[in-house]
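Justification of computing resources. Each target in the renewal requires a structure prediction run like the one illustrated here; the chain below, 143 residues long, is used simply to show the kind of job we budget for.
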Amino acid sequence: MTAARTPRLIYSGAFRDTFQRLQSDPQAVAGLSAAMTYLADFGRSAVSPDVQWHLQTSAYGSHAGEVRWPNPEDQHDHPGQAWRGLFVAAVDTSWIIFTVLGNKAIGPARGNDWYRSAVPRSDDIAAQAIEMLGLTAHPSRHE
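Resulting structure tokens:
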């Protein structure tokens, strides 16, 4: 039995900047960090509620997803908090690009409206990173 390979984790500037600003909320940082570690450890076997694969509106389809904190089942314990970290992964999950991080519970675009701007932005960031870094085993848009 071979050990699972740890994926290369890539963080966009936008994702990193928002995560840095979030440092004042240790509970959110710990929750998101745990969800990202879970995704890295289990790849495509990572499941809801902490990880959701296949963002239907993403150009990357089943290769795009989100990490969540708090998970929707615990949302009532964390009013005003619905952090989502969007990502695109290689077909074999040898790399994962974390593209956009945001709180869909606050701001002008809330709930599902948050995804209308976040998903196209995530797709653009992923496409630029894939090209710039010369990543292999990458998904095609609309695959």
